[in-house]
What does this fold into?
Amino acid sequence: MDNNFREDFEEFYKEIWPRPSKLYSVDRIDVLKWYVKWNIKWSTKKEQSNNVRKVNSLTLEIQRLKSILDSNKIIY
It folds into this structure.
């Protein structure tokens, strides 16, 4: 299954279970991609903290919109 697992939790569950231990949670290999079969793995909290993006796409979009508003002298 190459779809993202949002559409089918049972498939997601079958793909990832069993969890290695309580020290692990599901993580994405590439944080910019969806939860798909080829992009999930079990990781410790420490491993996951290394994958955190400091700026998410929503933050970048807000900055872009503010720039457009500013350049057009639109008060927000």
Remarks:
- Helices lie at 9-16, 45-49, 57-71.
- The chain has a mean pLDDT of 80.
